[in-house]
Structure prediction request, 228 residues.
Amino acid sequence: QKEVEQNSGPLSVPEGAIASLNCTYSDRVSQSFFWYRQYSGKSPELIMSIYSNGDKEDGRFTAQLNKASQYVSLLIRDSQPSDSATYLCAVNEARGSTLGRLYFGRGTQLTVWP
Amino acid sequence: DVKVTQSSRYLVKRTGEKVFLECVQDMDHENMFWYRQDPGLGLRLIYFSYDVKMKEKGDIPEGYSVSREKKERFSLILESASTNQTSMYLCASSSQGGRSHEQYFGPGTRLTVT
Prediction:
């Protein structure tokens, strides 16, 4: 069973701060990494995908990938109360990878207070 | 725009009933997935399918079966519902090939078995 580990939190930051969410994974040959946002009572929504080492920025969100350390993170700049949600990290099945199975962490709950 | 729909948002069934959960996607995706999500346990994969009439067991297939007769539709069947199958059920789909693996989720079905 592949492991995807996240700090369960809760993580609490003030409005305007940077929220940092972390994820480690066990399968060294994984190639695709994703961050999902899930509001309470709703389904997960894909917010970032990253495939190469380094940073990928999309608006206030930055995903960072370090395959050597088997580590992926999500930074949220200028955090807003509307960012309060659970964030799920997901990593692809690395073998027979066209099947597209993802392994999910249990999520980090983020609260942004005004 | 990406669209995954599920037949019901809320469902209440009695113990022993046969339950059908339907999922339809309009993105021409090859892969489809059924998860359940429970507090503290995260997303757990029940079954997935990478082609019409094909299916693969996930991590918790016991008590469930699936059917995929058409590319756009993936059904989850609870042969004889039990109270421990009370949960949020989420369907997702993704395309094959390249680096995709991005899974898109439906809104979920909250099933209560009494």
